[in-house]
Amino acid sequence: MRTLFENRWALVTGASSGLGAELARRLAEHGAHLVLTARSRERLDDLATDLARVNGIQTRVVCADLARPDGTDTLLSGVRELGVAIAHLVNNAGFGSAGNFVELDPARESAMVELNVAAIVRLTRALLPAMVAAREGGVINVASTVAFQPVPYMATYAATKAFVVSFTTALATELEGTGVRAMALCPGPVHTGFQAAAGIARPGLPIAVLSAQRTVSAALDAYLRGERLFVPGLVNTLQVRATRLLPTALTTWAAKRTMQRLGRAPKRLRG
């Protein structure tokens, strides 16, 4: 794997914590130079300094809020000023919400679409042509196992991740023969701060929950193999396969019951 990343620049969004920070750590271990981005400069600076010291790589930090319509322009301008060629783009930044859609903050729902969907499209479109011209590199877009079914009480989030899967797998087909790869990473529950930020007290079945380290290690192996869609963990893989075989009405009902069990369905709508 080191030959894939060594002395190549990788851009990781949402790198200040969770899966993004772990992706940055593992890429650094494999010799990649890193451009790290998120909203918080202090966390990024600390991570960048540590990764450069431990792994002997170069690191750069560009702060941007990709949930804002002008966020991608800010990031891309910062990357241009650095004068580095991005060989690997890791679109990890994203957030979710849980609850009755008609009661959720409309501004936050719109910002979720901006970050989880629009920013991925803009960054990929901006950076992919240079990869194709160089005939190397690729894109990892972080989706979720919820991408494979509608999820009541997480309607917007699940829909954004369904877009990521469809967009990435189509893109991977377009890139055949170019030397450039694209992969949708669809983790299930992972021990990060995501669930708390989304308002979910319990992440899911304990047997399905993976560590960030295990998730990222398996994901980078899959990226090396040239996979287009990767679901880490046997339990998660089996759940996704079952979801794709069963009727949508049934899987949507099951998702509703799961959200009720997790306490995210409004009491007056439970039943």
Detailed description of the structure:
- The protein has helices spanning about 1-5, 20-30, 40-55, 70-80, 105-135, 155-175, 195-200, 210-225, 235-245, 250-260; strands at about 10-15, 35, 60, 85-90, 140, 180-185, 230.
- The protein is an alpha/beta fold.
- It has a single domain (about 1-270), classed as Rossmann fold.
- It has a seven-stranded parallel β-sheet, sandwiched between helices.
- It is globular.
Which terms summarize this structure?
single chain; 271 residues; alpha/beta; Rossmann fold; seven-stranded parallel beta sheet; 51% helix
Q: Mean pLDDT, rounded to whole units?
A: 90
Which segments are poorly predicted (pLDDT under 50) over 5 or more consecutive residues? Answer: 194-203, 267-271
Indicate the structural class: alpha/beta
Helix content: 40-55%
CATH class (first level) name: Alpha Beta
Series of H and E elements: HEHEHEHEHEHEHHEHH
Trace the largest sheet across and list its strands: 3-2-1-4-5-6-7
Task: Give the structure's gist in a few sentences.
This protein has 271 residues and is of the alpha/beta class. α2 runs parallel beside α3 (41-55), α2 (18-29) packs across α8 (212-225) and α5 (106-134) packs parallel to α6.
Please render the helix and strand layout as text.
Blueprint: H1 2-5, E1 9-13, H2 18-29, E2 33-37, H3 41-55, E3 59-61, H4 71-82, E4 86-91, H5 106-134, E5 138-142, H6 155-174, E6 181-185, H7 194-198, H8 212-225, E7 229-230, H9 234-245, H10 248-261
Parallel strand pairs: 1-2, 1-4, 2-3, 4-5, 5-6, 6-7
